[in-house]
Amino acid sequence: MEIKSFEDRFISEIAALWNIHLSGQTPYKPLTEEEFKAKFVHDPNFSYDGTFLAIEEGKVIGFANGIMKKDFLPGETHENTPGYLTMVIVHTDYRGKGIGSLLLQKLENYFRTNGKKKA
What are the per-10-residue average pLDDT scores of the chain (119 residues)? Predict the structure, then answer.
């Protein structure tokens, strides 16, 4: 199993992971590939560097996304705003094996190396 940065070629697998493993368990609705892209990739705060995939034998088994605001309210700066964890999903067959923790560590490192003190 490897953790790697987001790549567009995995969008259909990530959307399928979202739909299968969140459907009926959370308030999230199923997403088409286009809806997934609109929600994540086309978000103005999205960064390929802040989005990670867990890959096992060429298949996506986990996904994590974190963002840092790019537009700030009065009084906010890059330095005084936290990083935001938007989603961590692990395929149910792989839960309890530390994959979610590894994805979360990658996000924490991403935030830390980009000057965030809180997430």
Answer: 95 92 73 91 94 97 95 91 93 96 97 92
Which residues, at least 6 apart from 2, have a Cβ–Cβ distance to it below 8 Å?
Answer: 54, 55
Count Cβ atoms below 10 Å from residue 51 Cβ, excluding itself: 24
Structure pTM? 0.88
| Domain CATH for 11 | 3.40.630.30
At which residue do the structure tokens 């790549």 appear? 7
Which two three-digit tokens encode residue 77? 């700066």
Whether residue 119 lies inside any domain: the answer is no
- Domain with 17 in it: 2-113
